[in-house]
Amino acid sequence: MSFTADPGMVIGHAHLKVSDLDRSIAFYRDVLGLEVQQKFGNQAAFLSAGGYHHHLGLNTWESRGGTRPPRGTTGLYHIAYLYPTRAALGRAVAQVIASGVVLEGAADHGVSEAVYFNDPDGNGIELYWDRPKADWPRDANGHLAMVNAALDIPALVKLADAPI
User: Fold this and answer.
1) In angstroms, how far apart are the furthest CA atoms of the chain?
2) What gap in Å lies between CA 109 and CA 148, rounded to an integer?
3) Measured between alpha carbons, how far is 80 from 161 in angstroms, rounded to an integer?
4) What gap in Å lies between CA 113 and CA 93, rounded to an integer?
5) In 3-state terms, what secondary structure has residue 152?
6) Alpha carbon distance 128, 76 (integer Å)
7) Under DSSP, is residue 10 helix (H, G, I), strand (E, B) or coil?
8) How many helices (H) does the chain have, and how many strands (E)?
9) Rg for the chain (alpha carbons), in Å?
10) Per residue in 4-24, pLDDT tens?
11) 115 pairs with which residues across the strands?
12) Phi, psi (5° rounding) for residue 135?
């Protein structure tokens, strides 16, 4: 028997193990613009956009001073942060670049445009926006036909000056 998730379900938040709480708070606050909603001493913090209780939890309960997981092991690949418009994504990517973060990749997937990089603990981050569903590429049978084409980062970042 197959089970189908409720179409109204969303992923509410992610919670990451980090090695240095203050360093991670500074990264997510200063680079991504998340706001600290609550901090539990030097062990955990909860951050969000727009005053939500939390989109991201950070903790050092089992990881204080820990090392990055080696390549080739299982675990989180990336967290994806969805922006409402291409201009909003452009502003976010401009801030990431201005903060000195090295981009690991970028792609136009047909359904979305995405930029990839890592946080200080090596957790993957994707910033993206979705094109309107009616514009998603489809094959002759109507199935999604996602691609992995080059993304013009300078054109995207140029949108950072677009009105909000």
Assistant:
1) 56
2) 5
3) 23
4) 11
5) coil
6) 18
7) coil
8) 3, 8
9) 17
10) 888 888 888 999 999 999 999
11) 106, 127
12) -95, 0
